[in-house]
Design brief:
heterodimer, A: alpha/beta, Udp-n-acetylmuramoylalanyl-d-glutamate--2,6- Diaminopimelate Ligase, Chain: A, domain 1, 5-stranded mixed β-sheet, 18% strand, B: alpha+beta, Heat Shock Protein 90, 5-stranded antiparallel β-sheet, 5 helices, 5 strands, 35% helix, globular
């Protein structure tokens, strides 16, 4: 399943990366501790988080994350958006809480 | 198996600069990829280098990362100038951290850094002197 289907189904707001949504999603990872994400996320995962600062882009780029979903309506910091553009990492926003975002994406990936 | 060195280089990391945190690990990952290193080796090298880089940024004044890549192994040496670690055994425990509240709010300082560096390397050693600095040597071998 590609990221675009998830964006459409969850009505995610695309803050950056409209052109990078064709990427295949391998699974998801939920976490706000960067060491946890670095150690345990997998290439092609959607990363669900509340962190909005620019370091999330470095982590996502290093782990080749398919896209980041910021939950509970959290908007990315300006530098985060700039970094996302540099690295080509889709940055998406949902008004839903993390639990619901994770549940819905899980269901889509494991019907 | 060939023992020739494919890459040998140093990278400086500035303490306290969270803005650029992750840039050195990203460069190292790309270098190893370009060398055609095994993907699992590249993945693990990226993880341990990122953790080392974040530790330098979070705690030290400055640090140096030395990367040496051979066809079937990568050696990463970290040395920093900083506060050092008084109790290494305690610092190695997952969950133990002396990070400031600001660093923790950003999602760093979870006390997983050194543990991750050990977990993802095949050989790990650490030495430290209080008020001088810390050295970490890690080796990552190709699995197959």
């Amino acid at each position: 399943m590609n990221l675009e289907l998830i964006v459409e189904s969850l009505k995610l707001r695309v803050r950056y990366g409209a052109k990078n949504l064709k990427r295949e999603v391998t699974g998801g990872f939920v976490g706000d501790l960067l060491s946890d994400v670095i150690a345990n996320s997998q290439e092609g995962n959607v990363w669900i988080t509340r962190q909005i600062h620019q370091n999330i882009i470095a982590v996502a780029s290093l782990k080749e994350i398919a896209g980041i979903v910021l939950v509970q309506g959290s908007e990315p910091a300006a530098e985060t958006l700039a970094r996302a553009e540099q690295e080509g990492i889709p940055l998406l926003v949902s008004d839903l809480p993390g639990f619901e975002v994770a549940g819905r994406i899980y269901k889509m990936l494991n019907p | 198996m060939s023992e020739e060195t494919k890459y040998d280089g140093h990278f400086a990391v500035e303490g306290g600069n969270f803005r650029n945190a992750g840039q050195v690990s990203s460069r190292i990952k790309n270098i190893l990829k370009d060398l055609g290193c095994d993907s699992d080796m590249v993945r693990r090298a990226a993880i341990v280098t990122y953790e080392a880089e974040i530790n330098i940024v979070s705690y030290a004044r400055k640090g140096l990362i030395h990367l040496r890549a051979k066809p079937d192994s990568v050696r990463i040496e970290i040395s920093d100038e900083g506060p050092g670690i008084a109790d290494i055994e305690l610092a190695m425990q997952e969950g133990y951290s002396t990070a400031s509240p600001i660093v923790r709010e950003m999602g760093f300082g979870a006390g997983m850094g050194l543990a991750n560096m050990k977990r993802f390397s095949d050989n790990f050693s650490i030495t430290s002197r209080v008020n001088e600095g810390t050295q970490v040597v890690m080796q990552i071998d190709q699995v197959h």
